[in-house]
Amino acid sequence: MKEIDYSKLDEACIPLVRYFNSIGLETKMCCQGHDNPFQSLFWIEFSKNVSIKDIKNFIDNHSYKIYNPKTKRIGKSELMCGWFCLRGLYNRWHYIAGSIEAADKDYEVWTNMDAGKVYWNGPMPEEFKEGIQ
Q1: How far apart are the first and last CA of the chain?
Q2: pLDDT digits (tens, 9 = 90+) for 61-72
Q3: 123 CB-near residues (< 8 Å, 6+ apart)
Protein backbone atom coordinates (compact mmCIF):
# COMPACT_ATOMS: atom_id res chain seq x y z
CA MET A 1 0.00 0.00 0.00
CA LYS A 2 1.28 3.44 -0.95
CA GLU A 3 2.13 5.92 1.81
CA ILE A 4 -0.60 8.56 2.20
CA ASP A 5 0.14 12.25 2.73
CA TYR A 6 -2.79 13.02 5.04
CA SER A 7 -2.03 16.75 4.93
CA LYS A 8 -3.37 16.79 1.35
CA LEU A 9 -6.74 15.22 2.26
CA ASP A 10 -9.94 16.97 3.23
CA GLU A 11 -9.78 17.10 7.02
CA ALA A 12 -13.14 15.41 7.64
CA CYS A 13 -12.11 12.40 5.50
CA ILE A 14 -8.93 11.58 7.40
CA PRO A 15 -10.41 9.35 10.16
CA LEU A 16 -12.32 7.13 7.71
CA VAL A 17 -9.45 7.01 5.19
CA ARG A 18 -7.08 5.91 7.99
CA TYR A 19 -9.66 3.40 9.20
CA PHE A 20 -10.40 1.84 5.81
CA ASN A 21 -6.70 1.53 4.98
CA SER A 22 -5.94 0.02 8.40
CA ILE A 23 -8.44 -2.80 7.81
CA GLY A 24 -7.22 -3.55 4.29
CA LEU A 25 -9.70 -1.53 2.22
CA GLU A 26 -7.16 0.54 0.31
CA THR A 27 -8.38 4.02 -0.59
CA LYS A 28 -7.63 6.00 -3.73
CA MET A 29 -9.18 9.47 -3.25
CA CYS A 30 -11.82 11.28 -1.21
CA CYS A 31 -13.89 14.42 -0.76
CA GLN A 32 -15.73 15.75 2.29
CA GLY A 33 -18.22 17.61 0.09
CA HIS A 34 -18.58 21.28 -0.69
CA ASP A 35 -21.19 23.92 -0.05
CA ASN A 36 -22.68 23.59 -3.49
CA PRO A 37 -25.53 21.34 -4.67
CA PHE A 38 -23.42 19.56 -7.27
CA GLN A 39 -20.60 18.54 -4.90
CA SER A 40 -22.28 18.14 -1.52
CA LEU A 41 -21.70 14.43 -0.81
CA PHE A 42 -18.96 12.99 1.38
CA TRP A 43 -17.22 10.14 -0.48
CA ILE A 44 -14.19 7.88 -0.40
CA GLU A 45 -13.09 5.94 -3.46
CA PHE A 46 -11.30 2.61 -2.97
CA SER A 47 -8.43 1.31 -5.07
CA LYS A 48 -9.13 -1.10 -7.92
CA ASN A 49 -7.80 -3.90 -5.67
CA VAL A 50 -10.88 -3.68 -3.41
CA SER A 51 -13.37 -6.29 -4.61
CA ILE A 52 -17.07 -6.90 -4.10
CA LYS A 53 -16.06 -9.72 -1.74
CA ASP A 54 -14.05 -7.23 0.37
CA ILE A 55 -17.01 -4.84 0.55
CA LYS A 56 -19.46 -7.66 1.36
CA ASN A 57 -17.20 -8.95 4.14
CA PHE A 58 -16.96 -5.47 5.60
CA ILE A 59 -20.73 -4.98 5.54
CA ASP A 60 -21.37 -8.46 6.99
CA ASN A 61 -18.99 -7.73 9.86
CA HIS A 62 -20.37 -4.26 10.53
CA SER A 63 -24.12 -4.81 10.55
CA TYR A 64 -26.54 -3.96 13.31
CA LYS A 65 -28.14 -6.86 15.15
CA ILE A 66 -31.90 -7.05 14.76
CA TYR A 67 -34.28 -9.00 17.00
CA ASN A 68 -37.66 -10.37 15.94
CA PRO A 69 -39.76 -10.72 19.11
CA LYS A 70 -42.30 -12.97 17.34
CA THR A 71 -39.77 -15.60 16.29
CA LYS A 72 -37.25 -14.78 19.06
CA ARG A 73 -34.48 -14.88 16.45
CA ILE A 74 -31.57 -12.53 15.93
CA GLY A 75 -30.58 -11.39 12.47
CA LYS A 76 -28.53 -8.62 10.91
CA SER A 77 -29.52 -5.31 9.41
CA GLU A 78 -27.18 -3.56 7.02
CA LEU A 79 -28.39 -0.13 8.04
CA MET A 80 -25.73 2.53 8.10
CA CYS A 81 -25.64 6.24 7.50
CA GLY A 82 -23.63 5.93 4.29
CA TRP A 83 -23.61 3.31 1.56
CA PHE A 84 -21.23 1.48 -0.73
CA CYS A 85 -21.60 1.47 -4.51
CA LEU A 86 -19.69 0.69 -7.66
CA ARG A 87 -19.39 3.87 -9.72
CA GLY A 88 -17.22 5.97 -11.89
CA LEU A 89 -15.37 5.60 -15.13
CA TYR A 90 -13.07 2.96 -13.64
CA ASN A 91 -15.81 1.03 -11.77
CA ARG A 92 -14.24 1.42 -8.36
CA TRP A 93 -16.07 0.95 -5.08
CA HIS A 94 -17.04 4.08 -3.16
CA TYR A 95 -18.26 4.78 0.34
CA ILE A 96 -20.75 7.67 0.13
CA ALA A 97 -22.44 9.59 2.95
CA GLY A 98 -24.88 12.47 2.69
CA SER A 99 -22.89 14.62 5.10
CA ILE A 100 -19.79 14.79 7.25
CA GLU A 101 -22.00 14.07 10.28
CA ALA A 102 -23.33 10.86 8.69
CA ALA A 103 -19.80 9.70 7.86
CA ASP A 104 -18.67 10.50 11.41
CA LYS A 105 -21.54 8.41 12.80
CA ASP A 106 -20.60 5.42 10.62
CA TYR A 107 -16.97 5.76 11.76
CA GLU A 108 -18.04 5.85 15.41
CA VAL A 109 -20.28 2.79 15.06
CA TRP A 110 -17.78 0.75 13.03
CA THR A 111 -14.83 1.40 15.35
CA ASN A 112 -17.00 0.55 18.36
CA MET A 113 -18.10 -2.67 16.66
CA ASP A 114 -14.45 -3.52 16.00
CA ALA A 115 -13.84 -3.01 19.74
CA GLY A 116 -16.57 -5.54 20.56
CA LYS A 117 -19.59 -3.32 21.14
CA VAL A 118 -22.87 -4.72 19.83
CA TYR A 119 -25.35 -2.38 18.14
CA TRP A 120 -29.04 -3.21 17.99
CA ASN A 121 -31.50 -1.83 15.47
CA GLY A 122 -34.30 -1.18 17.95
CA PRO A 123 -34.50 -2.23 21.58
CA MET A 124 -32.25 -5.04 22.75
CA PRO A 125 -34.28 -7.93 24.16
CA GLU A 126 -33.98 -8.31 27.94
CA GLU A 127 -32.68 -11.89 27.74
CA PHE A 128 -29.64 -10.68 25.74
CA LYS A 129 -28.72 -7.66 27.88
CA GLU A 130 -26.69 -9.56 30.46
CA GLY A 131 -23.05 -9.68 29.46
CA ILE A 132 -23.47 -7.48 26.38
CA GLN A 133 -22.18 -3.91 26.25
Answers
A1: 35
A2: 887 665 555 655
A3: 67
DSSP state of 25: -
> In sequence order, which ranges of the chain are alpha helices (DSSP H)?
14-22, 52-61, 100-114, 126-129
| CB atoms inside a 10 Å sphere around CB 35 | 6
Tell me the pLDDT tens digit for each residue of 9-35.
999 999 999 999 999 999 999 999 988
Q: Is 119 left (phi over 0), alpha (psi -120 to 50) or beta?
A: beta
Q: Give the three-class secondary structure for 20.
A: helix
- Alpha-carbon gap, residue 64 to 12, rounded angstroms: 24
Between the ranges 29-33, 51-55, 60-64, 129-133, where is the mean pLDDT highest? 29-33
DSSP E strand boundaries for the chain = 27-31, 42-46, 64-68, 73-77, 83-87, 92-97
**CB burial string 74-92: b at 16+ within 10 A, e below:** eeeeeebbbebeeeeeeeb
